[in-house]
Amino acid sequence: MKGTFFNDGKEFELETMGESWKQNELIRGKVNCKSGKGTDLSVVLAYADLKDVWAKNEKGWEIVEEKKIEGDGANFSWQIKLAPDSYVSEKNASLFVLLKVGTKVIGHLQLAVEVRPMLKSFIETFELFYRFKTHSFKNRKKGFLEYKMLPPAIRDYANMDQVLVGMRLANDNLEVKYTFTLKSLGMVGAGQTELKKNKKEIEQTLTKKDYEFCEGSHNPDGMKKFIGEALSQAAPKMLF
Question: Whole domain around residue 169: which residue ranges?
């Protein structure tokens, strides 16, 4: 990807080597000053809501990492390593690479960052074996990705409205937080009932042995076991 930006009569070109990346991968790029030498340049990895970017709200940037470009020349190379639990691209928010001169942001490129294959495999196991559908997902605090999953329309899941599945990798352990929204009938008066919704939270930690056969080879049966246990705890009457 390339973008051309202007500042004080100088033309700058910001480039990334690639079109998309996954969490924990390395982003490489170049900065070229087309008219003379570039000084006091920085490349910044930042996260923002798209509405703030479109509105040119400079306070909307959440700075993840900033790298000062050393030297006083016309062509520079740079690289930034995405964290294992970095933000990923959403419908309404994204990571960006910013080009700064001093403290001024003169341009940016939007990055397409995908979920790590192992996290994607966990959700696919949920969908394949239990027929849940992914409604949406969001970046959450502390490196968690949260998926909103909807159950299939069958009797076993009749009392379940949805489940939020939060995941992150920490020291090679997969931490999973389920927040189930369950439906039940409650008494509100003499002979009167109403439908109530209650939440139930369950946390799990999967070790590398639980979710992988070997490096890079995922274990869907191991993932299925943990997902089934969480569903059974949330609604014990369900049959698996």
Answer: 117-234
Let me know whether 99 and 183 are in one domain.
no
Instruction: Please give the DSSP secondary-structure letter assigned to residue 227.
Output: H
* 240 occurs within a structural domain: no
Instruction: Provide the token pair at 223.
Output: 């993932």
> Are 83 and 144 within one domain?
no
| Sequence-distant (≥ 6) Cβ neighbours of residue 182 within 8 angstroms | 159, 160, 161, 197, 198, 199, 200, 234, 235
pLDDT tens digit string along 51-88?
999 999 989 999 999 999 876 667 889 999 999 899 99
Residues 100 and 145 in one domain: no
Task: With beta carbons less than 8 A apart as the criterion, state whether 94 and 109 touch.
Answer: no
**Is residue 47 domain-resident?**
yes
Element (H, E) at 233: helix 220-234
Residues 42 and 90 in one domain: yes
Taking a C-beta distance cutoff of 8 angstroms, is the pair 219, 211 a contact? Answer: yes
Q: 137 and 101: one domain?
A: no
Neighbouring C-beta atoms of residue 44, cutoff 10 Å: 19
d(CA 39, CA 120) in angstroms, rounded, equals 42
Residues 43 and 11 in one domain: yes
Decide: pTM greater than 0.90.
no
Question: Look-up: residue for tokens 């590398």?
Answer: 208
Residue type, 55: A
Start-to-end C-alpha separation, the chain: 47
CA-wise closest residue to 82 among 138, 42, 26, 120: 26
Cβ atoms < 10 Å from Cβ of 62: 14
